[in-house]
Amino acid sequence: MHYSSLYPFLVISKIAVTFGRSLKKESGIGSRRHYDNSTLSTRKITLESRFSHKIQTYLFYEKMASSTILSIHLIVNSVQITNTNIMKTLLIILGLTIATNSFAQRINLDSLILSKKPKYLEGVVPVYVIPGYETKAILWQSTITEAKKFFENKYPRTSIKAKLAVLDSTNWTNEVYAYGYTYGSKGWIVLPGDEDFSDYLRIFGAAPFRKELINAYNENGLDPNELPVISFQFVAVHELGHLIVQQLIKEGIPGEYLNEVVANILAWEFFKTHKPEVMNSIELFFDVFRKNYTNPKYTTLRELSENYGKMDMPNYVWYHINMLRLVEEIYAVKDVDLLSCIMEIRQEREIQNLDNITMGSLLDKYYNGIFSRWLAKYN
Ligand SMILES: [Zn+2]
């Protein structure tokens, strides 16, 4: 067997790699920035940095595939290979190369969600829902649509393209996040459809204080069974907040915590001004959670950054609950808008690699030192 018979395979594998790269580019995978983990929260928060180990595996294979092809090119171009076993081995490697590149296709978020065979509901915010969860999907769709209108008015340069996916636990996008972690990225807002009150308490770690929660809801004349749907209404706008940031600040906001604070403040503002009853329910849940969940494993912003999307849900909720304290303080500062401040700072300097402390001190100018005080508590 002469090495020239390898060329068709080389051509095919090269095409596969190129195809994989174009999908990767489209889905935004691969531009993950690597920072020194010893510095605080400097990793850019984008979908790719949240795809966790599967993306890293993909990147590893992608690199391996490219270097394999390069090595084979070098081998076949430099020596006359006549040994059939070597040729067979090379062909197997090439086969694997092609197979690993097809992994890229599965990582594309659009194809990943559409592969779940959801039902399509049209609208300003189109919905892709696993049949059976249409009622809540329509409620969330209308909340997102209203919020989208509000923010497009508030930030005139914004035209948010949002799509809602309501998936159940069996059809969840585990390739991106474990079930329980909702997210907003690449135009998608992904929410769970099948969490009832008991599931919700279990997933978010509130089952041990179920009784306290039911009592608090009853005392305030609220139905605890509505907690999941209402809570995901808030989450839906929080995820829309991430999409707004991705559109307005292309390079991203530095640090996981600041990204979450911005998404939370956008949601907070919308619900305070448009649907205060949603906020009342959320705050009640958070109050009970705060009093009863007292032993989080991770508590610092460094730990948040290092374990983002990987820590257990109750711990992640704990971070959000504490962030909402900051959000409350920020929101109380009249006539100052956090996202506008960040955009203003960005006009003067590059912000994507700034650490929490520097970013906090830049924001302190607008917020009378609130950020530095808060950061000192959680660093
Ligand atoms: Zn978020």
CATH-defined topology of the largest domain: Neutral Protease, domain 2
Shape: globular
Strand content: 5-15%
**Text of the CATH class of the largest domain:** Mainly Alpha
* DSSP summary, beta strand count: 5
CATH superfamily of the largest domain: Neutral Protease Domain 2
Number of domains: 2
Average of the residue pLDDT scores: 81
Enumerate the strands of the largest sheet in spatial order, edge to edge or round the barrel. Answer: 1-2-3-5-4
Distance between the termini: 64 Å
CATH architecture descriptor text of the largest domain? Orthogonal Bundle
**Helical percent range?**
55-70%
Gyration radius over CA:
24 Å
The string of secondary-structure elements, in order, is HHHHHEEHEEEHHHHHHHHHH
Poorly predicted residue ranges: 1-6, 15-59
Number of helices: 16
The computed structural class is mainly alpha
